[in-house]
Design a protein that fits this description.
The complex is a heterodimer.
Chain A: H1 11-25, E1 30-35, H2 42-51, E2 57-62, H3 73-79, H4 84-91, H5 96-108, E3 114-119, H6 126-142, E4 145-150, H7 154-164, E5 172-176, H8 182-191, H9 197-204, H10 208-216, H11 228-236, H12 241-251, E6 257-258, H13 259-266, H14 270-279, E7 282-285, E8 288-291, H15 294-303, H16 306-321, H17 330-340, H18 343-360, H19 363-374, H20 382-398, H21 402-418, H22 422-438, H23 442-457, H24 463-478, H25 482-499, H26 502-517, H27 521-535, H28 543-558, H29 562-578, H30 582-598, H31 602-615, H32 621-637, H33 642-656, H34 659-675, H35 679-695, H36 699-711, H37 724-730, H38 734-744, H39 747-754, H40 759-772, H41 775-787, H42 810-820, H43 825-832, H44 836-850, H45 855-864, H46 867-875
Parallel strand pairs in A: 1-4, 1-5, 2-3, 3-4
Antiparallel strand pairs in A: 6-8, 7-8
Chain B: E1 2-9, H1 20-35, E2 39-45, E3 51-58, H2 61-70, E4 77-80
Antiparallel strand pairs in B: 1-3, 1-4, 2-3
Chain lengths: 876, 92
């Protein structure tokens, strides 16, 4: 920060912010990211920008460096000056969708433009990051400006990468605040008559806050401190003892402390406060007191002796607890309780803070509060401990930290068991099964689910049993045990209806529907449509509705009902995107890539699959689907990299051990092996999953896997239960098979069937394959035709080429050069060993392509276009 | 980022005039490539100008095909390659 009135070398940044505000005022809203190291001058820049705005309004919020930040901290800051609707929505903690929508409404309110500043988002809680993502994706039409400042060290960027990288880049501007130049430091140094500006610049690296701290010390005799910390502590040491105590109090409260709290804890005299203000270390900001910069606060806080710091935290906590609850955040109380090391207080506040964070969707923070309470060890009663572990496991599951979720849940299950609480143990086991299955540990998941059913079954039927049954139905559906999935789903549905548990009804219908689709497609879709309707009334951010879309789209895809799948997936992706359910959207995008591939839209399939694979780097189901699409695409095009992605896909599929993953991966690998001419390996790859597909009576996976065994010579007759097009092909009924694939809109598969046919069919196959760019299979068909003695096997269609702007062929260019040389057709014919008639045709074609009425005009046009020069260069 | 050898056939011969128009054509290819993170390093051209062997850097073979389509350039085969330099060859 620099002194008032002087803000050097920030003109271009201010201009960029001004332009963004102008655009927002015109209705073209955007996000501006302001980054730079701590103390570089981000706040000063934004304060100057806000002060000079001259229209619209500014809503200012900041994130705090609490051990565990308050959920939606910056939103609480801006709610005061904002409208009553936003304050009302903020007071209803459960309804996040309504709250975020209220924020967006607030931003769109006149006077335009509304500028929302969130400072220090590198300290933001999960819910604030979700809000940033929500606003960033929608800010354009709100005609508002969202300004986010953040530090640019590795840890900060790491935390923010996923959120900031996901904002629509066309409406995001990134500004980096650079260090002050030596010239700027010289100007500032001149004001306090220091002559060692070069030394100051070198020591501070041009960090604006550091520079001002050094220059505040006055004359050069003081020397230049080695760090910001030294500079701040040197100045603090010059304060009288009472002022020092005040400084320490302010230092243990991140960001700012309200003056009333200062009075309660320390009751400093006016002189003491003024001494601190005069030192320039503290400033008054409205009704609160804060350090002039967070760097100075941390310097003083870190220099405190631990017992002294704990005592101060105790006094702050006592003062906070003496106030009405709504006046201070639970996160602040939990923070001071922890820093004071007060076990009773941690137990009082951390579970409540965890609960609040979970309601806001701040999962990392909720988990951190649980950890804080669990760290108390023997202070916790076993039931308290089990409940906290359950809660922690749920947060970790939602955060996709499955190892942590599984460990916490196992301990909770053991504790509930030791206390004979069957109901809680049963619920924990059912939840445990969901973590295990997502971690691809299907067998363990099945065991947990069985235990949950046993425990719940020993008591009067109700909600708990309904949930256990819905979980079992889900596991059986994933395992493609349709009958069992349907039976458990139906039981869960009946119980959930009787208990009035809508969420479990929607879950039961989800798995019941998905499983039914495999035996009675229409009926299954109807169940899922009902699940989706029920889910609309749930307050889960749209997750259950999106789940129904996922099931409709992906089960249709697995059943090769591609036209229907496409519609469901399109709707589902739009819904999931609109609700920021990125994991589910990604899964459907992976499937959409597979559908595109089968329907012959290869370029689109590649784009989608690569986008998903680039986003999903972990071992997730989303990644497997994208890898299969890429593997198939590369195999069919003859492009490199097919083996790499299919090896990785196999590794992931084997972890799950389920047909749903193994089937498609093994089929794709068998196809690649067969295409490479390795029949033996094709059979081996297909056999890996063939028995499983037969046991699960999956017509399409069984059909394709049997087909590759058949092609590789490992199978003579198709087993029963294969999907029709594959069964037809294995019976060498290529014409019927081709018709079936054509009816399904699958051109590659149609051509593969036609390739088995007579010469006319093979020619038709080649036409399709050439159009798709399916080089390996096309070459294979050509080879077969030549070996069968077919004459004039069609060559591959030449793709559109740009040999020159007007499209002259090499021969025509040669003729054109001779024409330009003044030669007659007969001469040219002799020279090129061609007939005069051929040359005549070339010349006609040249005139037509150049739009010329005569040979002279043609030569003139050719010169203008540089075509003759090129001929020269081609020969040289 | 991977390196690829892209083989192309121009049945009518490749001809890019060494003029402003030719330079513009080449630049437009480079610009279109950049949108997909693809870099055209350089090419080898057969004497009859019907075959080219182009060295490209790109994120995926799909990206190579996408820009080829946009640039109206044919693709026969894409092979992933790495550099072997005989004069700096060392035992690993």
């Amino acid at each position: 920060m620099q002194t008032a009135g002087e803000l050097l070398e920030r003109e271009s940044l201010l201009a960029a912010l001004g332009d963004a505000a102008d655009a927002a005022a015109r209705g073209d809203g955007r996000t501006v990211l302001v980054s730079g190291e701590a103390g570089i001058g981000k706040t000063s820049l934004l304060e100057r920008f806000a002060a000079g705005l001259g229209r619209g309004r500014v809503l200012w919020g900041a994130c705090e460096a609490l051990a565990t930040p308050r959920p939606l901290g910056p939103l609480h800051d801006i709610a005061g000056p904002a409208g009553a609707a936003l304050r009302g929505a903020l007071a209803r903690p459960g309804d996040r969708a309504a709250l975020f929508a209220a924020v967006l409404d607030e931003l769109a309110r006149p006077p335009a433009p509304t500028v929302v500043v969130f400072e220090d988002v590198h300290w933001a809680d999960d819910a604030t990051l979700d809000l940033v993502k929500y606003l960033g994706r929608r800010i354009r039409h709100a005609g508002a400006l969202l300004v986010l400042s953040h530090r640019d060290d590795a840890a900060s960027l790491d935390k923010l990468r996923a959120v900031l990288g996901d904002l629509p880049s066309a409406h995001v501007a990134r500004l980096q605040v650079p260090p002050l130049s030596r010239a700027a430091v010289e100007r500032l140094a001149a004001v306090v008559a220091r002559r060692d500006a070069g030394g100051v610049h070198a020591a501070t690296g041009g960090n604006a806050f550091f520079v001002t701290e050094v220059l505040r010390q006055g004359g050069a005799a003081a020397g230049v401190p080695a760090s910001v910390r030294d500079a701040v502590l040197a100045r603090a040491a010059m304060l009288p003892p009472l002022a020092d105590a005040l400084l320490q109090l302010v230092a243990i409260v991140p960001r700012q402390i309200d003056l009333a709290l200062v009075g309660d804890v320390l009751a400093p005299t006016t002189e003491t406060v003024e001494a601190c203000l005069a030192s320039g270390l503290l400033v008054v900001d409205g009704a609160s007191l804060r350090f002039r910069h967070e760097l100075a606060r941390t310097a003083v806080e870190e220099a405190l002796q631990p017992p002294r710091a704990a005592a101060l935290h105790h006094r702050v906590l006592a003062a906070l607890e003496a106030r009405p609850d709504r006046e201070t955040s639970l996160a602040a109380r939990a923070h001071h309780a922890q820093k004071a090391g007060d076990a009773a207080a941690i137990l009082r506040w951390s579970p409540l803070a965890a609960h609040e964070a979970a309601l806001r969707g701040a999962r990392h923070e909720a988990a951190a509060h649980c950890h804080a309470a669990l760290a108390l060890g023997e202070h916790l009663a076993p039931r308290e401990r089990a409940a906290l572990l359950d809660e922690l496991a749920t947060h970790c599951f939602e955060l996709n930290d499955l190892d942590a979720a599984i460990a916490a849940r196992e301990e909770a299950i053991a504790l509930w068991g030791a206390h004979g609480d069957d109901e809680r143990q049963g619920e924990a086991l059912a939840a445990h099964a969901m973590s295990l299955v997502r971690a691809l540990r299907n067998a363990d998941a099945d065991a947990a689910s069985r235990r949950a059913l046993d425990l719940a079954g020993a008591h009067p039927a109700g909600r708990t049993l309904a949930r256990a049954q819905a979980t079992e139905s889900y596991l059986r559906m994933l395992n493609r045990d349709y009958d069992e999935a349907i039976a458990w789903g139906a039981r869960a549905l009946t119980l959930a209806e009787a208990a009035g548990d809508v969420a479990t009804q929607a879950r039961a219908l989800l798995t019941l529907g998905a499983a039914t689709m495999f035996v009675d497609y229409e009926r299954g879709c109807a169940h899922l449509a009902r699940s989706r309707e029920l889910a609309r009334s749930l307050d889960d951010g749209g997750a259950a509705v999106a789940d129904a879309h996922v099931m409709l789209g992906t089960a249709s895809g697995e059943l090769h009902a591609f036209a229907a799948a496409e519609g469901y997936l399109d709707d589902g992706i739009a819904f999931a995107r609109a609700h920021d359910l990125d994991r589910l959207a990604g899964y459907m995008e992976g499937w959409q890539a597979l559908v595109d591939l089968h329907r012959g839209r290869w370029a689109l399939a590649g784009e989608r699959a690569n986008a998903v694979a680039a986003r999903e780097l972990g071992r997730t189901t989303n990644r497997v689907v994208a890898l299969i699409a890429l593997g198939r695409l590369r195999t069919r095009r003859g492009d490199p990299g097919a083996a790499d992605v299919l090896d990785e896909a196999l590794e992931l599929a084997e972890r799950s051990g389920t047909l749903q993953r193994l089937g498609p991966v093994c089929a794709a690998r068998a196809e690649a092996a067969w295409m490479a001419g390795d029949d033996e390996r094709a059979v081996r790859e297909a056999e890996r999953a063939c028995a499983l597909a037969a046991a699960k009576r999956h017509p399409w996976l069984l059909g394709e896997l049997a087909f590759w065994r058949h092609r590789g010579g490992g199978l003579v007759v198709a087993p029963p239960g294969c999907a029709e097009p594959f069964a037809l092909q294995m019976a060498w009924r290529w014409s019927d098979a081709a018709a079936a694939w054509r009816a399904m809109g699958c051109p590659y598969e149609e051509a593969r069937a036609l390739a088995d046919g007579d010469e006319a069919a093979q020619r038709a196959a080649l036409a399709i394959l050439d159009k798709l760019g399916a080089k390996p299979l096309a070459e294979c068909v050509r080879r077969q035709m030549r070996e069968a003695g077919v004459r004039s096997v069609p060559r591959g269609a030449a793709s559109a080429t740009r040999s020159n702007e007007v499209g002259l062929t090499a021969r025509e260019l040669e003729v054109l050069a001779l024409v330009a040389d003044g030669r007659r057709n007969a001469e040219i014919a002799a020279r090129l060993s061609r007939s005069a008639r051929t040359v005549e045709r070339h010349v006609e074609s040249i005139l037509a392509k150049l739009g010329a009425g005569s040979r002279a005009e043609a030569v003139e046009a050719a010169r203008r276009l540089g075509l003759l020069a090129k001929m020269g260069s081609a020969r040289s | 980022m991977s390196r690829y050898l892209v083989e192309r056939t121009f049945p009518e011969g490749l001809s890019i005039p060494q003029t402003e128009a030719g330079a513009k054509a080449v630049r437009s290819v480079v610009d279109v490539n950049a949108r997909d993170g693809v870099t055209w390093v350089h090419s080898y051209v057969s004497p009859d100008r019907q075959k080219t062997f182009c060295i490209y850097d790109g994120p995926s073979p799909e990206a190579i095909r996408t820009v080829a389509e946009r640039n109206k350039l044919p693709v026969d085969r894409i092979t992933e390659v790495s550099v072997l330099d005989p004069y700096f060859y060392r035992a690993a």
